[in-house]
Design brief:
With about 650 residues, this protein is α/β, with parallel strands linked by helices. It contains 15 helices and 22 strands. Strand 19 and strand 20 form a beta hairpin. Bound molecules: 2-acetamido-2-deoxy-beta-D-glucopyranose (NAG) (7 copies). It is found in: Membrane.
């Protein structure tokens, strides 16, 4: 029969005897632990397999392992043995030397007892596949030696506490298939395995967890950020592709959100897919400020909605102290006429307008009918402070030939710019959109007016705003309802790292910029010169036929002009207007100075504007100019000069 020795006796003789008797099944017995185990099993219904014989040693019981001296229970494994009901308190919590506890795949319910906090030596805890409920037990966050914690497939709710960071040795944290809610804490531990899929978590995934696969986060209500798609305060709708989108800015109103989704898919960028676009602004309330009467009205046909009490666009309202408010802060720039409630964004419909190297632009239509453009920037490298400062600077720029920036949004995961939508589209669409197929050619008067408007806008940026535009191109020259032009997408190059090519479209890039990677007023002038050439020739600077020949638009114009001067150079659509040829030649000369290879040879924008205005005045004042949209002027056939 078993002889129970006091393992603490330290008596050499007894110890020696106990050694001799080991083979004779003489064992010490962890009496404290034994009582705790019996208390547990007596209160918990279980399958017959668990027949703990009260006359035998606890260390020999089913599922129980003791240390070598059999002085304490080190491991308790009772997986799938039909344990039912709550884990009684003051039972297992007394197994103070326990290293491993597995009660997985039973039907345990109720809360995890708080006295588990006494299992301070526990290294592995497996409670998955039960019906445990309640919140993530804070008692577990005191078990600082834990390396594996599996609570998956239970009915646990509430937040995942930040104090899991107390578990500094944790390598596996499995919480999937529960009802955890709230945001994911930033867990710094060196986890190898991590899963929180199929809970109700929301918010952005902390960087420390971004290395895990998307399946570790799937099935939550609103998690976002790497490895899932980027965070979208507006929370994209489920895509339902049914329509082929086109990124044409002059395209008519699209359908609802499904179109967006489609577009995104078409664009093929998984990241983009999220689009925040939706987000925009939905309930835009407009506020007309008398003192900003210089600001052009947005080209949208919404009625002015008075700002409701308690819902204003003031920064105070959107600058809450909490992190959530922080995340959702849409900052409206001074003099703005919009105020959006981000909650409304779900109701906005949106479509992709264009996709560029620094982000994607969306047209967003609010329920009220107001339309805005949201540009979603990627690869922003500047700090929040720097970003805000640049936005404040850009927000102050008010000029009829500059598309006003209305609002911006900055969070760790998302940077958005909101500006007015111009339904008439861009110069690029007018010049190059569907040539020949019954489209109305852009006639000379309009081309010149657009060129002059863009020049004035650029001059204002340079002189009053001290801002380098940095991305002059035909698609960034938008048409206002009165057929004047306004430049957009200005002043944001500073936000990106040097890996982003300055002046993102090659055909417009000044030669020195390729080396210096610095954008200057003079490089803007070069780009503007290319724009003028584009207006005159009808050729896009990045057009394939040009690049095949290995030359850019300015070099091509030079080569043609040197030999034959005008006729070949100009857009065939312009050639029919005999009386404006002189004007076109003069504008061509202005353009050629602008595209001088040496920056110092290029004029300043104010000089360019002055020359263009002189040119225009000569024409319009003498009354000779004929309406060039006179249909009798032979639409279609090109009359040689
Ligand atoms: C319990 O163990 C003792 C001794 O090991 C044995 O004699 C007895 O039959 C066992 N009882 C049951 C119910 O297994
Ligand atoms: C077993 O107990 C003895 C005396 O109590 C102790 O010296 C020894 O280190 C213990 N061995 C283990 C493996 O715990
Ligand atoms: C934990 O253990 C300590 C002493 O070891 C005891 O006083 C305390 O009551 C225990 N806590 C729980 C929750 O059982
Ligand atoms: C986490 O650890 C800190 C310091 O060790 C302790 O003060 C805090 O109470 C612990 N939090 C929890 C929830 O156990
Ligand atoms: C999970 O908990 C909820 C609320 O406490 C309860 O309604 C639901 O029945 C539970 N589900 C299971 C499987 O226990
Ligand atoms: C997460 O969801 C809770 C409600 O479950 C909500 O209060 C909170 O604002 C949400 N947080 C984020 C970042 O969406
Ligand atoms: C996370 O758990 C879910 C559900 O159990 C599973 O489908 C997914 O493969 C797991 N992902 C990882 C990375 O373990």
């Amino acid at each position: 029969m078993a002889v129970v020795f006091d393992s603490g006796s330290g008596s050499l003789v007894l110890w020696f005897i106990s050694l001799l008797l080991l083979g004779a099944k003489v064992k010490s017995e962890p009496t404290q632990d034994r009582r705790a185990l019996l208390a547990f099993i007596n209160q918990t219904p279980h399958a017959n397999r668990v027949q703990w014989n009260s006359s035998g040693s606890a260390c020999d019981w089913f599922g129980v392992l003791c240390d070598a001296n059999r002085s304490y229970v080190s491991t308790l494994r009772l997986p799938g043995v039909g344990l039912v009901g709550p884990i009684p308190s003051n039972t297992l919590g007394r197994l103070s030397q326990l290293r491993v506890l597995s009660l997985r795949s039973n039907r345990l319910s109720g809360e995890i007892p708080s006295d588990f906090s006494n299992l301070t030596l526990l290294r592995s805890l497996y409670l998955q596949n039960n019906e445990l409920s309640g919140e993530f037990p804070l008692s577990l966050t005191r078990l600082t030696r834990l390396t594996r914690l599996d609570l998956s497939s239970n009915n646990l709710t509430g937040p995942i506490p930040f104090s899991v960071n107390n578990l500094t040795h944790l390598t596996a944290l499995l919480l999937q298939d529960n009802g955890f809610s709230g945001t994911l804490p930033s867990i710094a531990a060196g986890l190898d395995k991590f899963n929180v899929s199929n809970n109700d978590l929301n918010g952005s995934i902390p960087e420390t967890l971004a290395k895990f696969p998307a399946s570790a986060f799937a099935g939550n209500s609103d998690l976002c950020g790497k490895p899932l798609p980027p965070c979208n305060p507006f929370f994209p709708p489920a895509p339902s592709p049914s329509e082929i989108p086109t990124p044409n800015p002059v395209k008519k109103k699209s359908k609802k959100l499904s179109t967006i989704a489609i577009v995104l898919i078409a664009v093929g960028s998984a990241v983009v897919a999220f689009l925040l676009l939706v987000f925009l602004l939905l309930c835009l309330k407009k506020r007309h400020r008398q003192r900003t009467s210089k600001t052009p009205k947005p080209p949208v046909t919404t009625r002015a909605v008075p700002v409701e009490a308690g819902t204003s666009s003031s920064k105070d309202d959107i600058t809450g102290g909490s992190t959530e408010a922080e995340r959702n802060r849409l900052v409206f720039l001074e003099g703005g006429i919009f105020s959006f409630d981000l909650e409304d964004l779900l109701r906005a419909s949106a479509e992709v307008l264009g996709k560029g190297s620094v982000g994607t632009s969306y047209k967003a239509v609010l329920e009220e009918g107001t339309t805005v453009v949201v540009k979603r920037l990627k690869d922003v490298v500047v700090t929040k402070r720097e970003f805000e400062m640049q936005m404040e600077l850009l927000g102050k720029i008010k000029h009829e030939n500059v598309v006003p920036l209305r609002a911006y949004y900055y969070s760790k995961d998302e940077k958005l710019l909101v500006s007015d939508f111009m339904p008439a589209g861009s110069l690029s669409a007018l010049l190059h959109g569907s040539r020949g197929s019954g489209r109305t050619p852009l006639e000379w008067d309009n081309r010149f007016r657009i060129a002059l408007g863009a020049a004035r806008g650029l001059r204002h940026l340079h002189l009053s705003g001290k801002v380098v535009h940095g991305n002059i191109k035909a698609s960034n020259v938008l048409l206002r309802p009165d057929q004047d032009a306004a430049v957009t997408d200005y002043g944001i190059n500073k936000l990106f790292g040097t890996s982003t090519p300055p002046n993102r479209v090659a055909g417009y890039r000044a030669p020195e910029v390729v080396e210096t990677r610095k954008l200057t007023f003079k490089s803007d002038v070069y780009s503007f010169g290319v724009l003028l050439l584009e207006i005159l020739t009808g050729k896009a600077p990045n057009q394939a036929s040009l690049s095949e020949e290995g030359i850019d638009l300015p070099r091509w114009v030079q080569s043609v002009v040197r030999e034959e001067w005008t006729a070949e150079v100009f857009d065939a659509e312009l050639v029919r207007y005999h009386n404006v040829e002189e004007e076109m030649v003069q504008l061509l000369q202005i353009a050629m100075v602008c595209v001088s290879t040496v920056p110092d040879h290029r004029p300043a924008m104010q000089e360019v504007v002055r020359k263009m205005e002189e040119l225009n005045r000569g024409e319009t004042d003498d009354g000779l100019r004929q309406s060039s949209d006179d249909p009798s002027k032979g639409s279609g056939a090109h009359t040689p000069p």
